[in-house]
Amino acid sequence: MNETIVCVVGNVATQPVYREVAAGPSARFRLAVTARYWDRERNVWTDGHTNFFTVWANRQLAANVAACVEVGQPVVVQGRLKVRTEVREGQQQWASADIDAVAIGHDLSRGTALFQRAVRPETPPTAARPEPNWETPRSADPQDGQERQQGQEAVAVT
């Protein structure tokens, strides 16, 4: 329950890599996030430090990322932040910041996008159950059927 949920806005830095694995589809790409600030001395916007995140998407989100996310596009990513470090021989070798994405979308403040709902294949019901017979069985007496028919005609006439 104690997860760090983040919302990050940046540019796609690498082509998404899509894989079909036993647990379902998976995709990953690198996201570059550069802070910008107003430099009062020079009177211009200046780029600050760039942070890189590895964004992971699973299942349907992975398939959608592979279909429509490309290098250089501005995106908004929401998900769980996971920071990992690896230590070898007592020295820190590297640190990695990953985001397990819950939602990914194009940043519409910097461009336009055309949304298209993903088509999911229809799955048949898992267990075939017979439909209940809700109709009342009709009488086998032909006279009864004639009376019913005459009653319906009388209702239709009025």
Automatic annotation (TrEMBL):
Region ranges (Disordered): 118-158
Protein name: Single-stranded DNA-binding protein
Example GO molecular function: DNA binding
Annotated Pfam families: SSB (PF00436)
Keyword annotations from UniProtKB, A to Z: DNA-binding
Membrane-crossing segments per the record: none
InterPro entries linked to this entry: NA-bd_OB-fold (IPR012340), Primosome_PriB/ssb (IPR000424), ssDNA-bd (IPR011344)
